[in-house]
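Table S2 (continued). Query chain:
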Amino acid sequence: MFKSNKGAVNLTILIVSIVVGVLILGTVAGIIIWKVLGEEDSGRRSRDRNDNGLKDCGVSDIFLNPTHMDMFNADFEQDDVFVCMGKNIKNNCRDSISVVKADDFDITFKVSGTSKSDCEIRLEIYDDDDNKTYYVECPLPGLISLPDISSDYKKFEDKFSQGPGNYAAGLFLMTFDVADRDWDIGREILGCTGNFD
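Corresponding output:
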């Protein structure tokens, strides 16, 4: 009887050793998999960000297409860059950047802030002749209220409810328009800053 007890003890030790071994191997394998997947995800996240930590939404050439020259009737939901920017604006103003190509120049489109109430829309144009960057930066709440301030901007308001691409395009076009022709409204009423004047 003593021998069979010793055999049972040995069998129990063997089973416990196997279970502990499987647990250790499972834990090591889990750590390795977690580390590898974490590095892949980190690499993917870093590729989505530029050197300044901004989400890089890419380059849009939508304005180079003759069918999109009528900006108010263009469907910006078909443009991945504007959709990306719109999603980032709606996602508590996630810092992001893109480049919008135009015939004579490229426009850098930036979004920065910490929430929808603390959000800035910035457009930059580099002038090779002057070797200078011109910019305008307007607060998002001011831009959204602009159609109520001036009826000239009612046409932009429709874009705001047509998806993230059109939302971003409406803000982009409105900011550009403020810098181009209504700088007094932009600076004095909306709180825009810039060096377009």
